[in-house]
Amino acid sequence: MATGSIVLFGEALVDDFVSEQVVGGAPFNVARHLAAFGSAPLMITRIGNDQAGALLRAQFERFGLAQQGLQHDPTEPTGRVLVELGEHGHRFTILPDQAYDRIDSAAALAAAAACTPSTVYFGTLAQRHPTSRAALRALLRSCDAVRYLDLNVREGQVSERCVFESLHEADIVKVNEEELRDLFGWYTHTRQDTGDMGGSGVRGACAALIRIFALDALIVTLGPRGSVYFGADGATVVHADTVKPARMVDTVGAGDAFSALFLLGRERGWPLELTLARANEFAGAVCAIAGAVPAERAFYAPYVARWLSD
Question: Which residues form the signal peptide (predicted)?
Fold first, then answer.
């Protein structure tokens, strides 16, 4: 692994539909995007000895993802999310007691020791079990990397206490609008209208969150309205010129696509405004396909040609 790698910690799983299994998990989606754009991320996760695990291993190999951080559990199954199509859309059941709940601290630290992480990406789902939570804490304390938290709260899976502790561990936090409103209610005790992200109330509440948790930055994704970056120095960067997909299929994975391009932009030294523009555009592009990640690598070709040729 090269010095300055992006390390991603957390769940790699499959979304189990009636007819097929599709690989996923927010950290894995971000890692796969990064690899497709020529980065060399290190994914730290744990899978079981089963068909779902074989699917994930195949994706590691297909995208050239380093496997030093890929742990194998002898008893627990690979993470699965049951997906049922109902009258009002998809219903997701995140199964308990999965391999990614048992990420081993020693193995995680050994994998990270092979590189000097520039950034550690983490979320909250893989912290629902004490074993993986302890492994993440050990990883964060083992290096001086920038800590990027994609809150990615899943109902019934994460406690407010976990969110509170995660925010204290982070340097840069990315949330969506609904998550931002939750943070306002929990920690600023205000109810701000996030429809106007430029309003003084929202700006003040975001500045309060940055102070409370000693953040470098807070990023809010707004779907078709773009994104807003709030810096600890008081800077606010609004990027509303989002390129809308010609055909909207679903929004699954849009946040992961945004995170991947934001991290790629930081790794490559792109200006912040350009990074946000590209992250918004790529998130919109993922909304034009079914699922969180494209089935074919050819999907990335036009973006690689435009963004990585300079």
Answer: none
> Burial letters for 203-238: b for 16+ Cβ neighbours within 10 Å, e otherwise?
bebbbbbbeebebebbbbbbbebbbbbbbeeeeeeb
Answer yes or no: are the C-beta atoms of 169 and 148 closer than 8 Å.
no
Residue pLDDT, tens place only, 200-234: 999 999 999 999 999 999 999 998 899 999 999 99
Mean pLDDT value across residues 24-28: 95
DSSP structural state of residue 186: I
Is residue 220 within 8 A of residue 197, CB to CB? The reply is: yes
CB atoms near residue 19 (< 10 Å): 5
Domains and CATH numbers, the chain: 6-170+241-307 (3.40.1190.20)
40/43 Cα distance (integer angstroms): 10
Average predicted confidence (pLDDT) for the chain: 92
Q: Report the alpha-carbon distance of residue 121 to residue 170 in Å, rounded.
A: 9
Alpha helices in 37-190 (DSSP H): 51-62, 105-112, 130-141, 160-169, 177-183
Q: Provide the 8-state DSSP code for 77.
A: P
